[in-house]
Design brief:
With 219 residues, this protein is an alpha+beta fold. 44% of the residues lie in helices and 23% in strands. The chain has eight helices and eleven strands. The strands form three sheets. Strands 1-8-3-6 form a four-stranded antiparallel beta sheet. Strands 2-7-4-5 form a four-stranded antiparallel beta sheet. Strand 4 and strand 5 form a beta hairpin. The longest helix is centred in the middle third of the chain and has 27 residues. It is elongated, with a radius of gyration of 19 Å. The termini are far apart.
């Protein structure tokens, strides 16, 4: 499908606005591991994922990462155009978790249309509210959920995304998603293995008991 089919506001734009976007739209094909947006060093623009998977995360002064949210087919990200919203004061990094095809509406183009279009402005506010809810959910998880529950939730989420119980993922990657240390995640996974929940092998985690992981997640 074309950009017009993916962009939810296309029919709310006038002819001039549609032409402005079409004339300036950037198409990118990025490989897994590519950094698409790097904090305040970039004002990339509005991202719209055609296919693939992106990860948005923040980085501490000590170099620890924590995932804020992920983007999948037809998802949009506005934090990559944070320069158009002055109230956004924190830096995020956006990385391709898989080979990804995406469109980018340059920040200045989107900003100009947002000023002139009430539907675009309203949708932008809704999008920001959704991402704010994602971040608040994450804070709640960090503050009130123990690490074993967070690891269980992450493993279950991964099996849903990848549609398999055999996850090709490292302990370091899980630590980066959860804002923890690799050694801590390794100890937790070994505990899970001892309880018969998972099986560990080099670069792979096999889920053996999804039902008990779900029980742990909810407990």
């Amino acid at each position: 499908m074309s950009f017009e089919n993916y962009f939810p506001l296309w029919n709310d734009l006038n002819t001039a606005q549609k032409k402005l976007i079409s004339d300036n739209l950037i198409t990118q094909e990025v490989k897994k591991g590519t950094i698409i947006h790097n904090g305040n060093l970039d004002c990339t623009g509005l991202l719209l994922v055609k296919s693939g998977q992106l990860r948005t995360y923040i980085l501490s002064d000590e170099g620890r990462e924590i995932t804020l949210y992920r983007l999948f087919d037809m998802d949009m990200c506005l934090l990559s155009a944070s320069c158009i919203i002055r109230s956004i004061q924190f830096e995020v990094t956006i990385e391709a978790e898989k080979d990804t095809d995406l469109w980018i509406i340059p920040a200045e183009i989107y900003k100009g249309i947002m000023k002139d279009s009430a539907p675009v402005a309203n949708y932008t506010n809704e999008l920001m509210a959704t991402r704010f809810s994602d971040v608040m959910w994450l804070i709640e998880q960090i503050m009130w959920k123990s690490l074993d529950k967070r690891v269980a939730s992450f493993l279950l989420e991964e099996t849903s995304i990848e549609e398999t119980n055999e996850l090709k993922i490292t302990h370091e990657t899980i630590a980066n998603h959860l804002g923890s240390h690799r050694e801590v995640i390794t100890r937790m996974l070994r505990y899970f293995q001892g309880e018969g929940l998972v099986k560990l092998s080099r670069g792979k985690i096999t889920i053996l008991d999804s039902k008990r992981l779900k029980t742990l997640q909810r407990s």
